[in-house]
Design goal:
Elements: E1 6-10, H1 15-27, E2 32-35, H2 43-46, E3 57-60, E4 63-66, H3 68-77, H4 90-105, H5 108-114, H6 121-124, H7 126-136, H8 145-161, H9 179-192, H10 209-229, E5 233-234, H11 237-245, H12 261-266, E6 273-278, E7 287-294, E8 298-306, E9 314-323, E10 327-331
Parallel strand pairs: 1-2, 2-5, 4-9
Antiparallel strand pairs: 1-3, 3-4, 6-7, 6-10, 7-8, 8-9
Helix pairs in contact: 1-3, 1-9, 1-10, 4-9, 5-8
């Protein structure tokens, strides 16, 4: 597979984007990257007809995938001549999924974000503050620092006294880091790397020696893998769009499950115009597209891409995949009113 077949839209210090970049690097899948600003607007993404504002966004051929949970599943399913990182045993796959739910849905990232030093230049930037106000919308305010410290300490303690307690190198006792390690390490690695975020008297290698040693091993494993694979090629927005629209679809077109409760309730059928967006953060921006596939795990819709210098000019469609979990679908009447 050529590097251009996989493109990661991200910015370098996004902890979510690291999840996907780590997977690509550790598995040895070549990819290109299209670097994005940390705040809106993102014209490179808009070229694909996508309003969704979260980073990262992953394209494989002419299929575009939203949300890191779905992106990692799709990368794990890729048929390439490289060993997968996921577990084979059902009980170990359950651990992977439970770690994903804990770290992504269980509030860990929100607690970690509450611990970022308030004097960080980015957090004091008015443009960044305005952007994140739109992103979080009416969501509850961040936890007080003492509450966030307690909750983050409970996560460090859980790993220290259970999965890493027997001195193993990796979460599932594998010879190398696997998907379970990626699912568990990303918010802790991010937070441990921010100076001043965690007080040294209650965190650090003395308090959680196994967790911090595991984080260091993971960093070293990624460094070695990057040395073998080399750094990804960086492409601009126009080139990324050209590569995507010039590619074939990565997946065959699916079907719409006519018995799905959401399909039944909204009276949806294949080809209908729908809006799709997250239910929590970044919910103010929703994509509009034609429904081409829907099952228990994902919704797939086609968006109209921008092309040429003319304002409003449209190009070939791309297929956008969003997970069902954490996303909401709405039908759109012919007059444009959302159902």
């Amino acid at each position: 597979m050529a590097p251009e077949n996989v493109i990661l839209y991200h910015y370098s210090y996004s902890p979510y984007a690291r999840r996907v970049a780590w997977y690509l690097t550790l598995r040895g899948i070549p990819y290109a990257q299209c670097m994005q600003p940390p705040t809106m607007p993102r014209p490179d993404v808009a070229r694909l007809g996508i309003e969704y504002r979260r980073i990262p966004i992953l394209s494989i051929g002419r299929d575009v995938y939203l949300d890191t949970r779905l992106q990692l599943i799709k990368l794990e399913e890729m048929e390439v001549s490289l060993p997968r990182l996921g577990a084979e045993r059902p009980d170990q796959r359950a651990v992977e999924r439970l770690l994903s739910r804990l770290m992504t849905d269980g509030g860990v990232f929100g607690w970690a974000a509450s611990l970022l030093p308030r004097d960080m230049p980015l957090l004091k930037d008015p443009a960044f503050q305005k952007d994140r106000a739109e992103f979080f919308g009416s969501q509850p305010r961040p936890d007080p620092r003492h509450v966030a410290l307690r909750e983050v300490a409970s996560v460090f303690g859980l790993l220290e006294t259970t999965l890493l307690a027997d001195g193993r190198d990796w979460v599932l006792g594998t010879p190398a880091p696997g998907l379970a390690d990626i699912e568990a390490v990303w918010p802790l690695h991010w937070l441990a790397g921010v100076p001043g975020a965690l007080p040294g008297d209650v965190f650090g290698p003395r308090a959680y020696p196994r967790v911090y040693a595991w984080i260091r091993r993971f960093e070293e494993a990624v460094r070695r893998a990057r040395g073998r694979a080399g750094r990804p090629r960086t492409v601009g927005g126009e080139e990324a769009q050209r590569i995507i629209l010039g590619s074939g679809y990565h997946e065959a077109e699916g079907r719409v499950d006519g018995g799905d409760p959401e399909v039944v309730a909204l009276g949806l059928a294949k080809g209908d115009v729908v809006t799709v967006g997250p239910t929590d953060f970044g919910a103010a921006r929703r994509d509009v597209g034609r429904l081409v596939g829907l099952d228990a795990d994902e919704v797939v819709y086609e968006t109209e891409t921008e092309t040429g210098a003319e304002a409003g000019a449209r190009g070939r469609p791309v297929r956008v995949h969003a997970p069902r979990h954490g996303f909401r679908i709405h039908g759109v009447r012919e007059d444009g009113v959302r159902l």
